[in-house]
Design brief:
The protein is an alpha+beta fold and 247 residues long. The chain has one domain: PPM-type phosphatase domain (Phosphatase 2c, domain 1), CATH 3.60.40.10. It has 8 helices and 11 strands. The strands form 2 sheets. Strands 2, 3, 4, 5, 6 and 9 form a 6-stranded antiparallel sheet that branches. Strands 1-11-10-7-8 form a 5-stranded antiparallel sheet. Strand 7 and strand 8 form a beta hairpin.
Length: 247
Amino acid sequence: MATAVLHYLAAAVSDRGRKRPSNEDAFGFSVEDGIYLVCDGMGGAAAGEIASSVAVDKVLHLLAGHSQNGSAPMPGAVEGAILAANDAIFSRAQEDKRLSGMGTTLVALAAKENRVWVLNIGDSRCYRLRNGSLKLLTLDHSLVEEQVRMGRMTRSEALRSPYKNVITRALGTQGQVTPDVFEMEAEPQDLFLLCTDGLTRELPDEVIASLLSKDAPLEELCSSLVDGAKVAGGHDNITCLLVRAEV
């Protein structure tokens, strides 16, 4: 029996939270081109905002119309756009010393019919909710998470660690970077969440799953996640982007 071709719906909400003076997160998506992005900028002054915005704008610009012309395999084109964004951020920081060291995390979802690719750099995450079960699809590029994966630190120790903000891979801080790439097949009603750590540091996975399982429009679900993170402390900027696969 032929598999039904999927299409996708998306919505996003971003909030500076309760403690930060500005929002250094950025997001963007194009349903037509099948690309969805969330970034969490870092750097002094306004450098974090610049880095995250440049990353989103560059990737979306380079992939505009890509799904129609089919010029390259989907994941290869997305990875190429991410590497171009890295060059753009790194070059801008080299030219303006006030922006020295700026960078950003990036998590991207690329969807073409029933195939989905997730790419990430840093500790912004992608989850999938399927049949009520939440699964983390990415691996954090952070010092404490890498210690946990190697068995050198427990999960509770990681949460208390003074190094929990240290990420080991970022976009734009070095001349070269390599994103992780994960490929999978989507199923009808799969719900993908792309988010910054302002959400995941405040809400445990079981609370995120519960909020996502409610029958509500995507934008309302995004708002409920952001509101939940703010009630829990809202110590950082919070961005949630939801993508749902439908027949």
